[in-house]
Amino acid sequence: MGVPLLEVRNLSVNYITMRGVVKALDRVSFDLDENETIAVVGETGSGKSTIAKAIVRVLEENARITGGEVIFEGVDVLKLSEEEFRRNYRWVKVAMVPQGSMNSLNPVLRVVDQMIEPLVLRGVPKVDAIKIAGEALESVGLPKDTLNRYPHQLSGGMKQRVIIAMAIQARPKLVILDEPTSALDVMTQANIMNLLKRLKREFKLSYIFITHDLALASELADKVLVLYAGRVAELGSADLVYTDPKHPYTQGLMTSVPTLREDKKLSFIPGEVPSLINPPSGCRFHPRCPYVMDICRREDPPMIDLKDGRKVACWLYH
Ligand code: SF4
Predict the structure, then answer these.
(1) CATH dotted code for 6-93+172-317
(2) Distances, alpha carbon 89 to alpha carbons 57, 73, 172, in Å
């Protein structure tokens, strides 16, 4: 086995807020190989987007990385200067499709001006940048002349294709997709999922696919990371996590699958996602867990390595 493309090790992130310190991520670890997709699933507020932003180093001003490493092709990118990271990694090797990004296209600029900006900033001559952008549009199924159009002349699905074209135009190895189909109707959503599958094959892409929609994640995922209140609850191959979930939270998520598309709250798991300012002691899931034991309230569950290669943070498997 070679070195993974990406290794996230014990990543911890806090947000400093007026109400206190929000412990958004607590020692999150996972690996990702080339041409592999990991789905990061969990409820709103579980820390999914924080993982994405930490990897591409676009966390908000009030965020602090309090520990851990993000190792891309053997290099801890958190230790690089912003200049070095921007020149060699962000949009070059690692690209991101942020949540709701199709609505962030600038309405007064043509697609071409928005697409070539990151390329020109990196020193690509304008004429070459336009050629690259045109080819990227074609690879996402849009005609080259989309370059000359304004965002208001495009449908939601077309705008999302433009955003995906922007993400892949510099031929990154890793694309982070944060709820990439959430604002789209079901048909367009299916088309975008098919596009993502094709691009993965054609360009040997790796994806981090962030979603609250487990059914959608199952279409792309090779492995699944289940996040609960900033901690990894379960991590393993998609086949195993879907067919035989081990963590009580994952089991609850699986029961909730039909409701997830409509409702970000999980009606089948009673209770709420806890406050991350004062998270519950011990296992953060204990106030909602049907199997809670005394030790769960007192002590953090260790990460257990199961024989099938899975990791589960739960006292039941200790
Ligand atoms: Fe439930 Fe305890 Fe396992 Fe947490 S550690 S998921 S409370 S059984």
Answers:
(1) 3.40.50.300
(2) 10, 11, 8
CA of 287 to the centre of ligand 1 (A): 9
pLDDT digit string, tens, across residues 189-248: 999 999 999 999 999 999 999 998 888 888 899 999 999 999 999 999 999 999 999 999
Please tell me the distance from the alpha carbon of residue 20 to that of residue 201, in angstroms, as a whole number.
Answer: 44
Ligand 1 atom 7, closest CA: 286
Residue whose CA is at the smallest distance from ligand 1 atom 3: 314
Rg for the chain, CA atoms, rounded = 20
pTM of structure: 0.92
Q: What are the structural domain ranges in the chain?
A: 6-93+172-317, 102-171
> Token pair 């990004």 is at which residue?
101
Distance 239 CA to ligand 1 centre (A): 22
Give residue-wise pLDDT tens across range 130-155: 999 999 999 999 999 999 999 999 99
Q: Which residues line ligand 1 (CB under 6 A)?
A: 247-248, 283, 285-286, 289, 291-293, 296, 301, 314-316
